[in-house]
């Protein structure tokens, strides 16, 4: 069984009722809305006729809500809140897609930030929100959408794919380079070695020349690779250039290459995501990262 409903008044008329209640007079509502006093009066009258009761008491100073008007206005404002919430939800679903990316500060400074605009651009535009942190963000738990991790790969409970290879060669300040340029691996070991997380890179470079490397007290470890490069430029020891990551930094610095020997690093940057990641915006950012690394 169905029932017929009276035609509802236009939303504009209901909004006008709220506007009059907020401003306390037809004249003020007219000024705020750009309508005439007569148009405001006609809209309010149409709603009152539809309801069959008066919403406002008219007096010399303006208008005030009747008891019926107060109850009706409360319901109408609640209905407008529901409409606004639905509109916001729809807008959120259609806004620019965003992807959260976790990366260590050195990679952000040396490679990512200068490419960020081009990584975001294209169709569709994607808002890449960068979190710089030394810890490994938990992509599986949804802390971020993509993490760029440095290592050998093979991490549990995530998907990982290599982003770029790196090659290594020693660099130092001009003062040190003047004494050691072209020196053998054994001769370089007379100086403090500078490194970040561990000696993996140095072991690979020395091992390629038949030299075994053990941890030494005079070597210096820094948490961030850009600090390693700054320490080398300050003459605190010898660092390894990681190409292509550090190429632009080295070109702008005083650092000098010490040897023609260049070896591939056992470690590399990987793109890490949750298992079976399928969101289009995440896959698109991954494709853009690969394209940028290839160039």
UniProtKB/TrEMBL annotation:
UniProt-recorded Gene Ontology molecular function terms: DNA-binding transcription factor activity; sequence-specific DNA binding
InterPro entries per the UniProt record, alphabetical: LysR-type_TF_proteobact-type, LysR_HTH_N, LysR_subst-bd, WH-like_DNA-bd_sf, WH_DNA-bd_sf
Coiled coil (UniProt feature): none
Domain of life: Bacteria
GO biological process terms on file: DNA-templated transcription
Domain HTH lysR-type: 9-66
Protein name (Swiss-Prot/TrEMBL): LysR family transcriptional regulator
Keyword Transcription among record annotations: yes
Family of this protein: Belongs to the LysR transcriptional regulatory family.
Protein keywords: DNA-binding, Transcription, Transcription regulation
Transmembrane helix is among the record's keywords: no
């Amino acid at each position: 069984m169905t029932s017929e409903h009276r035609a509802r008044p236009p939303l504009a008329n209901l909004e006008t009722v709220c506007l009059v209640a907020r401003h306390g007079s037809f004249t003020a509502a007219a000024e705020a809305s750009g309508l005439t006093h007569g148009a405001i009066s006609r809209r309010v009258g149409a709603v009152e006729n539809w309801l069959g009761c008066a919403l406002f008491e008219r007096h010399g100073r303006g208008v005030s809500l009747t008891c019926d008007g107060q109850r009706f206005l409360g319901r109408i404002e609640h209905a407008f809140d529901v409409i606004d919430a639905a509109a916001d939800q729809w807008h959120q679903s259609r806004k620019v897609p965003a992807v959260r990316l976790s990366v260590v500060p050195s990679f952000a400074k040396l490679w990512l930030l200068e490419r960020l605009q081009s990584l975001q651009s294209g169709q569709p535009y994607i808002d890449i929100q960068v979190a710089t942190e030394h810890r490994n963000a938990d992509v599986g738990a949804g802390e971020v959408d993509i993490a760029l991790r440095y290592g050998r790969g093979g991490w549990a409970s995530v998907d990982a794919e290599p982003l770029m290879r790196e090659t290594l060669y020693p660099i130092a300040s001009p003062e040190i380079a003047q004494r050691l340029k072209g020196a053998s691996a054994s001769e370089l070991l007379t100086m403090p070695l500078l490194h970040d997380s561990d000696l993996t890179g140095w072991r690979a470079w020395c091992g390629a020349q038949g030299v075994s490397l053990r941890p030494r007290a005079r070597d210096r470890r820094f948490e961030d690779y850009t600090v390693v490069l700054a320490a080398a430029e300050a003459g605190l020891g010898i660092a390894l250039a990681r190409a292509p990551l550090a190429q632009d930094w080295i070109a702008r610095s005083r650092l000098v290459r010490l040897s023609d020997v260049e070896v591939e690093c056992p470690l590399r940057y990987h793109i890490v995501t949750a298992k079976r990641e399928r969101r289009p915006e995440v896959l698109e950012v991954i494709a853009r990262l690969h394209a940028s690394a290839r160039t």
